[in-house]
Amino acid sequence: MSTWLITGANRGIGLGLASLVLKRGDNVLAGVREPGRAGSLAAQKDLHGDRLTVLGLDVSDKASVAAAAAAVTRPIDVLVNNAGIYGPRAGQSPGQDALDMDFDAFAEVLGVNTLGPLRVSQAFMPQVEAARGKIITITSRMGSLAGSHTGAIAYRASKAAVNKVMLGLADALRPRGIPVLLVHPGWVRTDMGGGEADISVGDSAAGIAALAGQLDMSLSGQFRNHDGTPIAW
User: How far is CA 188 from CA 99, 170, 179, 199, 204, in A?
Assistant: First the structure.
C-alpha cells in the first residue's frame, strides 16, 4: 500500500487520479486550496475513510505549503504536482497574447504552475526521501519549445519553465535515488480542457498511474505523454 500526495485533488485530473489509486487500495493525501469547499471529495471519503486525508494546500502560498508539510509525518511514495491554472481565456482583454498581456495574471500563472511544483517538492522532500519515493509533475506539451503555436503565452511559458525547473530537480535528486518525471496528461475533458477535449479524466488518470508504477531512475528527467510516449522538449 503506497501513499500518494496529489495537489489540486478536488477536481479534474487530480480528483480522477485520487479516485483511481484509492480504489486500488492506496492512501491519498489530497491537497486542496480550500478544504471547506472540497465537496467533490466527500464521496471518496465515504468510500475509503481514513485512507483519504484532505489537506489544506495552496501551492502559491509558502505559508500554506509549509503548514501542510509540517502536518504530514508519514512517508510519501508518490508526489504528484497536479495543481495548475490556465490564466485569461481567449477573447479576454487584457489576455495572454504576446501583444495584449495581463501581466498580473501572467505572474499568477507562473506562481502556481512553475513555482508551486518546486515549492511543494522542496517542502515535502523529507517525506518523499523517507519512502525513497517518486515525483511526478503534470505539465503540458503546450510548453514544448518544439511547437510553433501562438496564444496562451502565460500558460505555455509557465509549462516550459516548470519543465526546466523539474529537469534541474531531477539532476539534483539523482544522487539520492529519487526519480522525477514530467507528464503531459493529454487534452482532457475537464473545466480547463473543455468539452471538446479528446480523452476522459479516467483514461488520463490511468496513464499517469501506470507511468508512476514504471518510474525509476532510468526515466528520471524525461518528458512523457500520459500513454508513455516521449515528447520533444
Answer: 28, 26, 25, 5, 7
Question: DSSP string of 143-210?
Answer: G-TT----S-HHHHHHHHHHHHHHHHHHHHHGGGT--EEEEE--SBSSTTT-TT-SB-HHHHHHHHHH
In this structure, is the dihedral angle defined by the CA atoms of residues 173, 30, 17 and 192, taken in order, positive or negative?
negative
Residue 73 has pLDDT above 90, yes or no: yes
Per-domain residue ranges for the chain? 3-225
Cell of 221: 528527467
Which neighbouring-strand residues pair with 30? 6, 54
- pTM assigned to the model: 0.95
Active-site residue, 155 included: yes
Single out the catalytic residue among 117, 155, 170, 204.
155
E-strand ranges in the chain read 3-7, 27-32, 52-56, 78-81, 96-97, 100-101, 134-138, 180-184, 223-225
Strand duo 100-101 + 223-225: pairing: unpaired
On average, the pLDDT of the chain sits at: 95
CATH 3.40.50.720 at 3-225, yes or no = yes
Q: Could you give the CA distance from residue 144 to residue 137 in angstroms, rounded to a whole number?
A: 15
Helix 62-71 and helix 116-123, axial crossing angle in degrees, nearest 10: 30
Q: What is the pLDDT of residue 197?
A: 66
The per-residue pLDDT for 188 is: 80
59 in helix, strand or coil? coil
Average pLDDT for 37-46: 90
Q: What is the reported pLDDT for 193? A: 67
